[in-house]
Amino acid sequence: MNAADIMTREVMTIRPDASILEAARLMMQHRISGLPVVDSSRNLVGVITEGDFLRRRETGTQRRRPRWLEFIVGPGKMATEYTYESGRKVSEVMTGEVHTVVEDAPLDQIVTVMERNRIKRLPVLRGRELVGIITRANLMRAVVRLAHESHPASASDADIRKRLVDELNKLPWTPSISVAVKDGVVKLSGVLLDERQRAALRVVAENVPGVKDVVDDLVWIDPYSGFVLDGR
After folding, report:
1. Is the pTM of this model over 0.90?
2. CATH number, domain at 213?
């Protein structure tokens, strides 16, 4: 699954010469927190978000500094801030450097870009043309879709046990435990040296297709004291 499979194709956009008032009205009307900014050829030139309205002259929230700090900051940066806080056109307040992906970008790349840059939306480009957008809601829908597609109706106990054991053998943190399966119910037994393994082992079992329930018969032994602790 890649960007083209999950992106929203009908994207609400705005032109760079539009007023910030128009941008604000669009975002409120459609209940969205940001708008891609495109030129007449639908080439992406920037993005405007709710964050661009935090420091505005209209609300009296401009940055204010002591005189001595203004001297250090310099006239160029202060002039840029004035344009940003008092500008009336989208082009004057938008962010010009936008993180994007292409249509065939895989999901792990998309998530990495969004997580690393702490962004909520990711424009999808074909060349420079905007062809879609991915939001966190798109990723949530992908999770639901993939969960439905990968969950078969039933599997034999032998198949379930084999899949589970094979998966456990791939994971470097799993302890040596016993796995039994009857009528789709998995029973896990053995010794844990770290209580955090318990929840993870249950998750591994629950993700095996055909599993109906998981019975936890694992024992946690404190490696320092040797005491048996009940963490269930």
Report:
1. no
2. 3.30.1340.30
**162: containing domain:** 157-229
Give the whole-angstrom CA distance, residue 225 versus residue 223.
6
In a domain, 151, yes or no: no
Q: Is 208 exposed, middle or buried (0-12, 13-18, 19+ CB in 10 A)?
A: buried
Nearest-angstrom CA–CA distance, 51 and 33 = 9
Q: How many CB atoms lie within 10 A of CB 168?
A: 19
Residues 85 and 140 in one domain: yes
Q: Give the tens place of pLDDT for each residue, 162-187.
A: 999 999 999 999 999 999 999 999 99
Cα separation of 143 and 154, whole Å?
A: 21
Determine phi and psi for 24, rounding to 5 degrees. -65, -40
Interval 37-47: pLDDT, tens: 999 999 999 99
The total number of structural domains in the chain stands at: 2
Give 29-38 pLDDT, tens digit per residue. Answer: 999 989 999 9
- The rounded distance, in Å, linking the Cα atoms of 162 and 209 is 11
Residue 116: CATH number of its domain? 3.10.580.10
Compute CA 137 distance to the chain's CA centroid, rounded to the nearest angstrom.
9
> What is the C-alpha separation between 131 and 125, in angstroms, rounded?
6
